[in-house]
Design brief:
With about 450 residues, this protein is mainly beta. The chain has a single domain, classed as Neuraminidase (6 Propeller). About 5% of the residues lie in helices and about 35% in strands. The protein has four helices and 24 strands.
């Protein structure tokens, strides 16, 4: 797909959204507040749209013929890994994750299943029309030779072993595989994505071809059919399984900010499960290097999700640029989500400090009070608590700015998958969870 040309005429754009001011004005007119700013005291849902049923085999084979032999009754879903404005009213870019997957316990151990192993992650352009989410376009993510990257695990030493739908037949690891999560559009029409496996930052062309995959130093990923560059801090090798990079923001100056979904497993898994401190990293596409790192502190899990007491359920799923040095950061569990406004202060940069040394004891993740230990934790201010807003679905993974007071939220429906042996019937067909992919517009009581 070719990028849009701006021509010679200078277009005034919003710093917060990157959209032309004229477009923002039309959006504001399209979604007026139901009451004046002094009367609306809480966020409220003003619009909900649902993705229709599209057989996954039909979708995938339409992009790369022959990739899916049997979709096992699964429909297109999982496009809610992130959402990014496409420049026109009600249009967005989204990205799928690694595809339908689940867990089944066999002989007391959980196995990761990939019931549609041929599925290829895709960039999907959608439009919200009335109560329907329509697919306008889709771009398969491919290797240098044009083959599907697939969503399969990369390395036996680091990732969960992949199995078929009933967890009986092992599948081959694939170094090309990507578990894509965040997406932003580059100025040349290509895209930046983040991935959970590496974790990695991935540059793809406008046609979806992987141009470069940036991974942590020391990952030693061999056999990929695209360039792999070890440019990220090696401390990221300690990411929790299935909890790599989840959020991605494009700053107005061109830098990227990546969020590690959960605290690193430092010095071990137990410490990571109990920690409230995760990390944001700033990447310069010009320098092709990480230029800053920040400590981000979650709220207690019972604050984010009242009634939940498992700290490991906390995750960052979305980060959105709202100014030169400011972000919206979403903290969530599968049932609730809260969004904070965060400023990236230069004084908060910990890149290269002892906290990037895996031998440091106690680790950053072990500190009950990082500030008391001299760690400059990012300050934050609550913008919205979606757990208290009627009509917001669970597992919100993507957030986009519609206008200064409206956010578009998208959920991950996991392709209708559930864990356990009941995910498929006796004929190997999906027993759908009934959870649908939805785009939900939430109006805030005041401007961001």
């Amino acid at each position: 797909m070719s990028p849009h040309s701006a021509g010679r005429r200078r277009v005034r754009r919003s710093v917060a959204t990157g959209l032309p001011l004229a477009v923002l004005a039309s959006l504001a007119a399209a979604y007026p507040a139901s009451a004046g700013p002094h009367h609306q005291r809480e966020p409220e849902v003003v619009r909900t749209a649902t993705l229709g049923e599209i057989p996954l085999g039909t979708f995938s084979n339409g992009l790369l013929p022959g990739t899916v032999a049997d979709d096992r009754g699964v429909d297109l879903g999982g496009i809610g890994s992130d959402i990014y404005p496409a420049g026109r009213k009600d249009e967005f870019w989204t990205v799928t994750d690694r595809g339908p997957n689940g867990q089944i316990k066999v002989d007391g151990a959980k196995r990761r299943t990939f019931p549609v192993a041929g599925f290829d992650p895709a960039i999907v352009k959608i439009k919200v029309t009335g109560e329907t989410v329509k697919v306008l376009d889709a771009i398969p993510i491919t290797t240098r030779s044009g083959k599907a990257v697939t969503g399969l695990s990369n390395q036996a030493s680091r990732d969960e072993a992949p199995y078929d739908f009933n967890a009986r037949q092992p599948l081959a690891f694939n170094p090309n595989g990507l578990d894509t999560e965040g997406i932003v559009r580059a100025s040349d029409g290509g895209f930046w994505l983040v991935d959970e496996y590496g974790p990695s930052l991935v540059r793809v062309s406008s046609t979806g071809k992987v141009l470069t995959r940036y991974v942590p130093k020391g990952l030693n990923l061999e056999g990929a059919d695209y360039p792999v560059v070890e440019a990220l801090p090696s401390i990221l090798l300690n990411r929790k399984i299935n909890r790599g990079f989840e959020g991605l923001a494009l700053m107005p100056g061109g830098d990227l900010v990546m969020a590690v979904q959960s605290p690193l497993s430092l010095p071990d898994q137990d410490a990571g499960e109990e920690s409230l401190t995760t990390r944001l990293l700033r990447f310069s596409p010009k320098k092709r290097a990480v230029t800053a790192e920040y400590a981000y502190r979650f709220d207690p899990v019972g604050v984010v999700d009242p009634g939940e007491d498992d700290t490991s359920e906390l995750k960052i799923s979305s980060v959105v640029a709202i100014g030169r040095e400011e972000l919206l950061v979403e903290e969530r569990t599968d049932k609730a989500a809260r969004v904070h406004r965060v400023r990236l202060e230069r004084s908060s940069d910990i890149l290269g400090d002892r906290w990037d040394d895996a031998a440091t004891s106690p680790s950053l993740e072990e500190l009950d009070d990082p500030s008391a230990a001299g760690v400059p934790v990012l300050g934050k201010r609550l913008v919205a608590d979606f757990g208290t807003v009627e009509g917001v679905p669970g597992k919100i993974e993507g957030i986009a700015l519609v206008d200064d007071r409206t956010l578009a939220l998208i959920n991950d429906n996991d392709f209708g998958m559930t864990d356990g042996t009941g995910a498929f019937d006796a004929q190997g067909r999906l027993v759908d969870s009934g959870i649908e992919t939805q785009v939900t517009y939430v109006r805030l009581p005041r401007g961001i």
